[in-house]
Amino acid sequence: TLDKGSPITASRDTSRAARVLKRAIMVGCNAAGVDVDDLEVATVPVTRFQVRSSRSRGGITVRLAEHDTQSVEIRFFDKDGIDIPETVQRKIERLYGREEFRRSLASDIGDIGFPPRTLEYYTAALTDAVDVDAINACQFKLVLDYSYGTSSFVMPNVLAKLGADVLVVNPFAATAGVVGSDTAGAASHVSGLVQASGAHLGAVIGPGGERITLVDDEGRILSNDEGLLLLLDLVTAAQPGARVALPVAAPTAAERICAAAGADIVWTKLSAAHLMEVADSGGLDFAASQMGGYIFPRFLPAFDAVATLVHLLGLLARDGSRLSKLTSRLPRIHIAHEEVVTPWEQKGTVMRTLVERAKDRPTVLVDGIKLLEPDGWALVLPDPEDPTTHVWAEGPSEAEARARAQEHAVRIRQMLR
After folding, report:
1. How high is the mean pLDDT of the chain?
2. Does pLDDT of 58 surpass 90?
């Protein structure tokens, strides 16, 4: 549906498989009469930034799947650089399967262009979004692991503006390193280096440049939920009356933090596409997933690990506290997860039955059904891709959260008999 002269932006990681597939995609786009701006090797956030800041009508990135490095995934972005909705994804799959795509005449074949200075524009926009002078004044000491990903192309430009003393691990892009990467092991290594070097903080940046794992100055590795609470606490303290977007499965402590700061919460579905859509709707100061992806919408309404790190440094410079002091006051989080095998044809019946049984109880129906309890909650959500139903539950202790999740899982299994 793109007109000649309205290009799309394409990027990839360093793997040979992604390189070959991206070339095939660009040739296919040209054959359909679409121009392509080729970023060659770039992080996902830089690709999104280029889509938003240029005349592109969409974006494509090709890279090894994060949780299955034997597979290559193709991700599509809309004209605002955010993930296309699941309904549009399924439409693309149907059109591809039916081969219902346009073939152009020789005179209408698209071109391939190479946008100049994309990284420089990205860096300039990011540093304009924070108080660089305050960050420079703090003279932060950092330990960073790039996970052999494409962030190694971005970080030197950004770090040059921050005046930080940086120890970098895995500072180059390498497909073999990405395939063998282990986030938990990398975070443990960074933790040891932080303690040995006396750094202010450490971070492991995912290969695609979207997700980040934080380590405080005492070497404590923050879970994804703890990272969410930490950034939420800093953002709401720095911006009274802030509006934030959080997935419906976020810990109850997030509500308490927002209530104490007078911040408003916009609840979203668990899908990254919906979270980004809400972040792009305007008027939000922060959004976060529970998978290590954080969003500062005034810069880019999508996950960006580099932007998260830079904004975190800006918030720490403003607060003046050491990271370990902030993490030590984070509440304990107890969330359990269960999966129930559910035939496709019975998913609707299960959800309708749960809604009917909970009609007299406080519920949240943003995504699936969330049953509220005085000391926690339970969320039941069918999987959009697999014949399973997910059950998440939060409780005052690990044992109580697990018992609550198992209780709801048992009820669903009884419905399936």
Report:
1. 93
2. yes
Q: How far apart are the first and last CA of the chain?
A: 47
What residues form DSSP beta bridges with 33?
A: none
Q: Which of 64-73, 167-176, 191-200 has the highest mean pLDDT?
A: 191-200
**If DSSP states are collapsed to H, E and C, what string results for the chain?**
CCCCCCCEEEEECCCHHHHHHHHHHHHHHHHCCCCEEEEEECCHHHHHHHHHHCCCCCEEEEEEECCEEEEEEEEEECCCCCECCHHHHHHHHHHHHHCCCCCCCHHHCCCEECCCCHHHHHHHHHHHCCCHHHHHHHCCEEEEECCCCCHHHHHHHHHCCCCCEEEEECCCCCHHHHHCCCHHHHHHHHHHHHHHHCCCEEEEECCCCCEEEEECCCCCECCHHHHHHHHHHHHHHHCCCCEEEEECCCCHHHHHHHHHHCCEEEEECCCHHHHHHHHCCCCCCEEECCCCEEEECCCECCCCHHHHHHHHHHHHHHHCCCHHHHHHCCCCCCEEEEEEECCHHHHHHHHHHHHHHCCCCCEECCCCEEEEECCEEEEEEECCCCCEEEEEEECCCHHHHHHHHHHHHHHHHHHCC
Task: Say if residues 112 and 136 touch (Cβ distance below 8 Å).
Answer: no
Query: Strand 294-295 to strand 376-382: parallel, antiparallel, or no bridges (unpaired)?
Result: unpaired
Query: Residue 18 region, left (φ>0) first, then alpha (ψ -120 to 50), else beta?
Result: alpha
- CB-based contacts of 165: which residues, under 8 Å, 6+ apart? 139, 140, 141, 142
Q: Is the pLDDT of residue 1 over 70?
A: no
Distance CA 2, CA 382 (A): 34
User: 72-105: per-residue pLDDT in tens?
Assistant: 999 999 999 999 988 898 888 888 888 777 777 7
CB-CB contact of 254 with 228 (8 Å): yes
Do 384 and 86 meet the contact criterion of CB atoms below 8 Å apart? yes
